[in-house]
Amino acid sequence: MAYTRGNLAVKPKPVERVSPGYREQTKVVTRRTFIPMKEKMLYLLTILVCVAVASLVIWRYAHIYDLNKQSQRMNSEIRANKLEISKLELKKQTLKETIVETAIKEGYVLPPEHSIIHVPRVAGSTDVAETSKK
């Protein structure tokens, strides 16, 4: 049963519908309002500022990424160069140890400890100059 004005004991009265000879039709007319030019320019300027800020942030992140990549590349090159330097130092040390043995095998002799070795001075630059003139 329907609830009528706070009392359930009252029987609702049927509503008579009288149909008129004509039917009223309502048509909704929507008028399109235009956005003023100043407001359009404000929106455009806001979008341009947002795009500029976003592109600046992206550019900075790209620059930071590039610097990090260069730093990693330099670190790997430094590690490779340190490894090569240690190998070359080891080779230098072994060559220093074997140079006396190699010289003795080739026929060179060790001088006495207190002897003075005199090497005649030869002007290499004048010889080169004379040969280049000829």
List keywords for this structure.
134 residues; mainly alpha; 2 helices; transmembrane helix; Cell division protein FtsL; membrane; transmembrane
Q: Give the percentage of residues in beta strands.
A: under 5%
Question: What overall geometry do the principal axes of the alpha carbons give?
Answer: rod-shaped
- Report the C-alpha radius of gyration, rounded: 51 Å
Separation of the first and last Cα atoms: 134 Å
Low-confidence stretches: none
Q: Major sheet: size, sense and barrel closure?
A: none
Secondary-structure element string: HH
Helix content: 55-70%
Could you give the count of β-strands?
Answer: 0
| Averaged pLDDT | 84
Structural class, from helix and strand content? mainly alpha
Number of helices: 2
Helices, strands, pairings?
Layout: H1 37-106, H2 124-133
Keywords: Membrane, Transmembrane, Transmembrane helix
Organism: Paenibacillus antarcticus
Protein name: Cell division protein FtsL
In brief, what are we looking at here?
Keywords: Membrane, Transmembrane, Transmembrane helix. By secondary structure, this protein is mostly helical.
Task: Describe the 3D structure.
With 134 residues, this protein is mainly alpha-helical. The protein has a domain at 37-109. Helices cover 60% and strands 0% of the residues. The protein contains two helices and no strands. The chain has helices at 37-106, 124-133. The protein is rod-shaped, with a radius of gyration of 51 Å. The termini are far apart. The mean pLDDT is 84. Keywords: Membrane, Transmembrane, Transmembrane helix.
